[in-house]
Amino acid sequence: MAYSHAVVRNYYRDVAYIIIQKVMKMNRKEGKILVLFAVVIMIGTAFSGCMGGPKFEEVKGFNMDAIGKISSERAMDATPVIASEENSFYALIGTPVAEYYSDNDSHVAPLLVENFSNPSRSITRFEEMYSFSSDIKIVGGSPEEVSVDIAQKVWKKSDGVVLIEDSKEGYELGVSATPIASYLNIPVIVTNNTDNVRDVLDKLGVKYTFLCGNIEGHERTWRFTDEQQITNFLIDLVKDKFGGVKY
After folding, report:
1. pTM as predicted
2. Domain boundary assignment for the chain
3. What is the largest CA-CA distance in the chain?
4. What mean pLDDT do residues 98-125 have?
């Protein structure tokens, strides 16, 4: 289990306090040993926030100026995505791959959700009519494995990420929040433990996280707690990005 820096610091502080109380009741020789130990403990407390462990800042309210400066660089343009219906997260992961905005211009490719073992007639007809020279098929693998692989394949770097907990709550919030990834041209990553994906987030250069679910953030983090909050944010984002909501 990973503990926050605040928990670690409080633990060391309490231990040092207990030691000092005991020193006051002991003879000089024994007391010197415990005082030295207490000093070491307090030094550890001072550096516990600087050594090891992830750092993130969870903030309240949305700074649209900062969000407006979020940028990314892709390795490929909008790419057709065929997502297996076996896992509901697959379509969320594929959304910003197939559709995104850059400089207010939309880039759109098909996004299909398919039963690979028994595809519907409408899907097969679409695939027959529109042959894809290249596409990304999302089938098999955990949402975490798939989302990490796609994020590294599609984006060279990204200031932001939509981070979704692999849970019912995470999915329900993620359905509403995934358009953020398309509007800002950032990846969707799914996990049940942020530590599992921090290396990838660091590699992409993520500085801002839009979080759905009960997991830790990464760098500067905005946590969504309900769908209405996401809707309100999307309205503000669209107004800021396009000058208004046209629908």
Report:
1. 0.77
2. 5-47, 56-242
3. 90
4. 92
